[in-house]
Design a protein that fits this description.
342 residues, alpha/beta, Quinone Oxidoreductase, Chain A, domain 1, seven-stranded mixed β-sheet, binds nicotinamide-adenine-dinucleotide, binds zinc ion
Amino acid sequence: MTEQTFRAAVVDDFGPELAFHDLDMPKPGRHQALVKLHASGICHTDLHAAEGDWPVKPQPPFVPGHEGVGEVVELGEGVHPVKVGDMVGNVWLWSACGHCEHCRTGWETLCNEAEYGGYTVNGSFGTYMLVDTRYCAIIPEGADPVEVAPILCAGVTVYKGLKMTETKPGQFVVISGVGGLGHIAVQYAVAMGMRVIAVDIADDKLELAKHHGAEFTVNAKHADPADAVQEYTDGGAQGVLVTAVHPQAFGQAIGMARKGGTIVFNGLPPGDFPAPIFEIVFKALTIRGSLVGTRQDLAEALDFYARGYIKPTVHECKLEDVNSVFEDLRHGKVDGRMSIRY
Ligand code: NAD
Ligand code: ZN
Ligand code: ZN
């Protein structure tokens, strides 16, 4: 028997401050589970959500959070791949229709009927949440909830993003932006045998990148990252993964890429950037977006973690700290990822 209400951080109106409310305990519907949270990462997307930054907006009031880890306490109707007591997680791709063209072709992340955790469905900034057990993360046995939480969004997103750069072992990849996503991207890239160059606008972020295995770093505040990368790699990087939260980094990616290279955008700052047509054509560049990952990408990303190749830099906080963490994210002051322990 669980309680009647639970504590959550809620976006009542778009803006900088979340409110704290006691909400009614949700009842798990068909294919759903009620989950008692142990931890939740705080992603920059949660800040975009709370501020209503994107063209497609969530509907307040809602509970953000899509890196939640907790135990199943109740199951709704239907057949489930998990049982009460199992550790599961909510993710951005909370559910999808399962039968459209995108779902049928293994691109459920593009499903038009998809629900998004902490965006269209209440998320993990609360002591309880619902998951759809057909789409939730299955947490590896023995994982520390606080540490594994960032794999559920940051990890799977950059793992998929790196695959989409088509960079091969021994080739160069630039990770632009070494925040929650970027510092984990450095680790996946190293594990995949890539030679990693990290770009950020803060020296402490570049130190973190070196700690996780970057061989060369550029502070884009003090040097032109395109010049520095072209020189270091003798012609540019085969892959560029942009996780930065400023549009300027997206334009700079073009100058850092090698002829025939592939640039993948993960970051989602509001805005646009100027794209030089001549350079894109003459260098025959591929530029593509990448949105989180499929269930298979998630399983693979968690497997890298479980086998010890990925160790997120996480700092623990409390649910009540979420507004101050947002303030730090806004100013690029978070080292790695902040993760709530419940
Ligand atoms: P974060 O705040 O932890 O990290 C952002 C990093 O970008 C910081 O290290 C910051 O110093 C750096 N940065 C800022 N301006 C820069 C510049 N001009 N050049 C280089 N680096 C710069 O954020 P996060 O949680 O890692 O999220 C990053 C972005 O990715 C957000 O926009 C988020 O919404 C988005 N995101 C996308 C997906 C997806 O599926 N595509 C998934 C998760 C997050
Ligand atoms: Zn996220
Ligand atoms: Zn679908």
